[in-house]
Amino acid sequence: MNIDKITPHIATGLVCSALTAGICYLCIGKTTGGENEIIKECREIIAEKGKPDFNDKSAKIGMINGYLNSGGDEYTYYFEYMNADKLQEITDYVNTAGTAKASGFQIDISEDGNILITEITDGLTADKQGLKTGDIITHIDGVSISEQGYENYANKILGKQDTEVNLTVNRDGKSFDMIFKRDNDLLRDVDGKMIGDIAYVTVSSFSMLSAGHISTAMEEVGDADKFIVDLRNNGGGQNEFMVQAVDYFVDAGEFVMHAYDGSEQFYSTTDGAVDAPIVVLVNEKTASAAEIFVSMCKQFGRNATIVGTQTFGKGIFQREADLSNGGKLHYTAGYFTVGDWDCWHGIGITPDITVEMDSALIGTDDDIQLKKAVELLEKY
Q1: Which of 30, 250, 305, 365 is most buried, most CB within 10 Å of its CB?
Q2: Are residues 51 and 101 in the same domain?
Q3: C-alpha 326, offset from chain centre
């Protein structure tokens, strides 16, 4: 789901030391010397008698994230970058490039300065060739990434269609080499086709091009008078582009971002929904902006039926704040509402018709959720 990714330093804090550090932080706060004095005392003992390669930076980050993690919000965390602007620039460059989009991978810098695979899209090239989320690429064509510098060498994973690159991958502490064939055949996040007299539109995410892709898909299906909109496994995306996309299927309506600081942001759709029955397919991986799309169709569409399983249940949004030490706090800033519905966070949206199915069957002959949608629309 286009659900928020955790950076390498966050992973260090949360996976390696968050629990222990969090408990220590809470205990330290109760001491008469204060947490800073106790931390200093512990560090002096370790420096004199402890392990020589004790990672003080990771311990501090882990301490902060242990505290934040104990607050009960999984979307709130602290992170730091060395040369933050440069590292973010190269990460964004790689992740928005055609190779990453079409091949189905996203990256970030690992704790040791290598390439961390943060996301792999099921069914695309990277997945088919065996890369997995959490893999660390240490060498590209035999050259060490950490030695050359992530900011100087991470973009070498990109390249022209069908060109090959030799990757050295570390997975769970074991290294192996693989030949990776790049894919640059950009995929649309929206596709449309006809199933009999029913227009079947799949939306995998909401990006800057989604509205245009939906427009193209609508042209491809012609003057259809029945629609299936498939949002299964759609993890969300950017709200402003989701609104442009949903506008094809709903009349005038709005959803609101309620910030905890009291401010509100309104997003509106216009009149002119397709005058046709619509079935929206959802599952447990339909999340965030995709759930807003579902609720907009249900409340402001003319004849929408929701089919599938309970959606993920992410009805909150996050923002980032710059901290005095150069670090950043990623925190939950508020929640969504649509029309007169309550926020569905932690609950999800219940379909009108529940059809349980393994998501691995999507697109196969055993896709009973899609079959149910077709069955419903054939009655019109």
Answers
A1: 250
A2: no
A3: 25
Amino acid at 40: K
Range of the domain at 217: 190-316+334-377
Question: Which residues make beta-bridge pairs with 119?
Answer: 106
Q: pLDDT tens digits for 338-371?
A: 999 999 999 999 999 999 999 999 999 999 999 9
* Whether residue 88 sits in one domain with residue 73: no
Regarding predicted confidence, which is higher, 195 or 326?
195
Q: Please check the confidence at residue 31 and state whether its pLDDT lies above 70.
A: no
Residue 326 within any structural domain of the chain: no
Same domain, 348 and 290: yes
Residue 27 covered by a domain: yes
Q: Any idea what the CATH number is for the domain that residue 248 is in?
A: 3.90.226.10
Count of domains in the chain? 3
pLDDT confidence band for 254 (50 / 70 / 90): very high
pTM (two decimals): 0.68
Please, which residues have CB within 8 angstroms of residue 34's CB and are 6 or more apart in sequence?
28
* Domain co-membership, 176 together with 226: no
